[in-house]
Amino acid sequence: MSSSTPPRLTNLSAYSDEHLVTLSDVAEIADISKQTIYRWIKSGRLPTPTKFGPNTVRFRLGAIRAALAALEASSAA
Predict the structure, then answer these.
(1) Is residue 8 part of a domain?
(2) Backbone dihedral region of 44: left (phi > 0), alpha (psi from -120 to 50 degrees) or beta?
(3) First CA to last CA across the chain, in angstroms?
């Protein structure tokens, strides 16, 4: 992660798989744009977030970890 990584994202292993993260957090974790996140959700590469309101979505950290691990494994193969 970059040197401008928010403090809450510096030690992700400290958080449980049930921890909720924002779209911006996922973008920072995966080092991709928000537009790419939406494309990856549509294509099934990332899980669908939980919607909490008209402008509020959150992702389960465990689901993001699993999806990114699967993407990394498929690109390494």
Answers:
(1) no
(2) left
(3) 24
Please indicate, yes or no, if residue 42 is contained in any of the structural domains.
yes
Own/partner pairs, 68-75, CB within 8 angstroms, 24+ separation = 68/29, 68/30, 71/45
Contact predicate 65/72, CB 8 Å: no
Which domain covers residue 70, as residue numbers?
21-76
Number of domains in the chain: 1
What tens digit of pLDDT does each residue of 17-75 get? 999 999 999 999 999 999 999 999 999 999 999 999 999 999 999 999 999 999 989 88
Asked if residue 55 is part of any domain, the answer here is yes
Is residue 44 situated within a structural domain? yes
Q: Which tokens is 16 given? A: 């449980």
pTM over 0.85? The answer is no
44: closest CA among 74, 22, 14, 15?
74
